[in-house]
Amino acid sequence: MWITRLKLKNWRNFKQIDIALRDRVYLIGPNASGKSNLLDVFRFLRDIAKTSGGGLQKAVRDRQGMTKLRCLQARTDPEVAIEVALAESLDSPMAEWTYAIGFKSEGKGPQRLLLNYERVSRQGQIILNRPDAADQADPARLTQTHLEQVNANADFRSIAEFFAGVTYLHLVPQLLKYGDAIGGQRLDDDPFGQGFLERIARCTPRTRDARLKRIQTALQVAVPQFKELRFVKDEVNGHPHLEAFYEHWRPSAGWQREEQFSDGTLRLLALLWSLLDGDSLLLLEEPELSLNEALVEKIPLLLDRLQRQARHQRQILLSTHSEALLRNPGIDGRGILRLEPEKEGTRIVEPDEAEQRMMETGLSAAEVLLPKARPARLDQWTLFK
């Protein structure tokens, strides 16, 4: 299933947006323009749909409440709204499913978070439209969505399962290398990769070995002297580890564990694993970090190649500042969204006809679109003394 359209109202940086999405979406824009906040929309829907420890109330609470979630430019309109269209094919003339939700604080008394509406339609036919008569009779029902309730979402459970399968991984190598020494609490769904090795360990041996074999082939090209990758468990405490063999003048000294991997190797390994794991939406933030520029330029090709080999195709949304990544000629210009901060909130700009023609005639997205994503007053940096 693919997300083909997204509409937002009063969500963080965005007062009002309506955008079409492709199979690969690249978000560009200056710092603090809202790229992470746009990705967080899909994490928010995942947090609502989770069958264990999810729900609307927790999803909002984890984001520090409505005061942090609601757009500052919303003024007198207290409602935050999200609408997502899903289809089996990106070229479908009509969405298979549409899910829409609007919510706000009650405005009196305990200031409960309440649904303003929740709607689900399939091929244009409405199958859920809240609030209904039961909600009117018992307003406490509006503190929960039907999406999060197994006994209420039977007619559209495929949507709930799709949202619950959304994957976000922004691996922080230090948290993986020194996790035992640092300790600390892991966030829900482990966005920073502290439990990445446990995720690998949960796979069946056959699936795990097949994926690591593909990753090994990619790393042999990307990492000098890299030869072999294997999964092992500690003989003493049973903790999972990854070991890599590097060609070395002392053959028996070539094996290294993940704490000895470079930051770039760990991030690349996590990226490759994420591409092969799961079938729902994949969210990536700045995958170019810690990687050689020549390798970064091949990331779009890597995404395409690994997706062809994977059992299920995944839609991918990623944010980037990288000129090298956007130089790749294989990027579909229709999938690049430029975020422009303005006084009334960030707007999202799709490539216009002139920009599309320039990219079709041979110019790269880095040449056509990236210069427009620069901060407007960057030249004033030279005035600092």
Strand order of the largest sheet: 2-1-4-5-6-7
Mean pLDDT: 90
Could you describe the largest sheet, including whether it forms a barrel? 6 strands, antiparallel
pLDDT < 50 stretches:
none
Structural class: alpha/beta
Write up what this structure looks like:
The protein has 385 residues and is of the alpha/beta class. It has 15 helices and 15 strands. The protein has helices at residues 35-49, 56-61, 66-69, 133-137, 157-164, 173-177, 179-182, 196-201, 205-222, 263-276, 293-296, 299-309, 323-326, 353-360, 365-368, and strands spanning 2-11, 14-20, 24-28, 80-87, 97-105, 113-122, 125-130, 167-168, 226-233, 240-246, 255-257, 282-285, 316-319, 336-340, 347-349. A six-stranded antiparallel β-sheet has the order 2-1-4-5-6-7, with no helix packed on it. Strands 8-12-13-3-14-15 form a six-stranded mixed β-sheet, with helices on both faces. It has a three-stranded antiparallel β-sheet with strand order 9-10-11. Helix 1 (35-49) crosses helix 5 and helix 9 (205-222) packs across helix 10 (263-276). The N and C termini lie far apart (54 Å).
Keywords:
single chain; alpha/beta; 6-stranded antiparallel beta sheet; 385 residues; 6-stranded mixed beta sheet; 15 helices
Concise summary:
With about 375 residues, the protein is of the alpha/beta class. It is built from 15 helices and 15 strands.
Topology of this structure?
Blueprint (H helix, E strand, L loop, with lengths): L1 E10 L2 E7 L3 E5 L6 H15 L6 H6 L4 H4 L10 E8 L9 E9 L7 E10 L2 E6 L2 H5 L19 H8 L2 E2 L4 H5 L1 H4 L13 H6 L3 H18 L3 E8 L6 E7 L8 E3 L5 H14 L5 E4 L7 H4 L2 H11 L6 E4 L3 H4 L9 E5 L6 E3 L3 H8 L4 H4 L17
Parallel strand pairs: 3-13, 3-14, 8-12, 12-13
Antiparallel strand pairs: 1-2, 1-4, 4-5, 5-6, 6-7, 9-10, 10-11, 14-15
Helix pairs in contact: 1-5, 9-10
